[in-house]
Amino acid sequence: MSQNPSQQSLQQRLAELQVEIERQAQRIADLERSAGLGPPTHRHLKRGSVYAELGRGEVQSSREIVEGDQLVIYRAENGSLWARPPEEFDDGRFKPLV
């Protein structure tokens, strides 16, 4: 039994919407992952806790970094990640845009 043009049009539109939903779901997943909200990527072997790796960056500091130090993690326009101590990030080298 063949479908009438109205049914064919509805089925075509449904297929188009399904493709769009999949595209948007992938976009959301990509945004979540880039914001560190994606699924965990690693498990700590001793504690068993899980973590999401945000990326690999380079420490840029005029002083030695030791365990327990806090770092500001920031992303350049090209996507590279950097880290420096808060006192260096807040000392006037960077100006808030807002």
Could you give a quick summary of the protein structure above?
It is built from two helices and five strands; from the N terminus they run αβββββα.
Explain the overall architecture.
This protein has 98 residues and is an alpha+beta fold. The protein has 2 domains: 1-54; 55-98, no CATH class. 35% of the residues lie in helices and 15% in strands. The chain contains 2 helices and 5 strands; from the N terminus they run H-E-E-E-E-E-H. It has helices at residues 5-34, 86-89, and strands at residues 42-43, 50-51, 57-59, 72-75, 81-84. The chain has a 3-stranded mixed β-sheet with strand order 3-5-4. A two-stranded antiparallel ribbon has the order 1-2. It is elongated, with a radius of gyration of 23 Å.
| Shape type | elongated
State the helicity in percent bands. 25-40%
Alpha carbon gap, first and last residue: 63 Å
The main sheet orders its strands as 3-5-4
Mean pLDDT: 84
C-alpha Rg, in Å? 23 Å
The figure for the number of domains is 2
How large a portion of the residues is in β-strands, by DSSP E? 15-25%
* Helical/strand content category: alpha+beta
Q: Write down how many β-strands occur, each being a DSSP E stretch of 2 or more residues.
A: 5
Extract low-pLDDT stretches: none
SSE succession:
HEEEEEH
Please give the count of helices: 2
Largest sheet: 3 strands, mixed
